[in-house]
């Protein structure tokens, strides 16, 4: 098995940290942009279930919120992986940094592409122009394969 490594994904968003925080923790907002649906608000520490959705297919995964320091740091395990979202004021917006420590996945280009697509959808949601969630096979309609190939080159895969 390959040793864990961390994908670092940084985006400048034109919305304040509190608005971004709500999108990261509120189940109704997560369901509009994230790769999973959350069974509860992620502001509270402790275990929860995140459900991966791909069309009609649903797969429950275990998660544990470890840090919920609003509106600065959200950290949770997602199955074997660890995700840490850091929000910093940046001008009138937010610098959002995602550190996704990959344990069980060998294709980091798939993960990077997935987060790239999700964050584009998140930006639309924050702008008040919700696009609608893009999950699973539906992402192929938005250039997923080409983007994945580009991330594969960047990551040396």
Automatic annotation (TrEMBL):
It comes from the Bacteria. Residues 15-126 form the Activator of Hsp90 ATPase homologue 1/2-like C-terminal domain. Coiled coil: none annotated. Belongs to the AHA1 family. It comes from Paractinoplanes ovalisporus. This is SRPBCC domain-containing protein. Pfam families: AHSA1. InterPro entries: ASHA1/2-like_C (IPR013538), START-like_dom_sf (IPR023393). Signal peptide: none annotated. Gene3D superfamilies: 3.30.530.20.
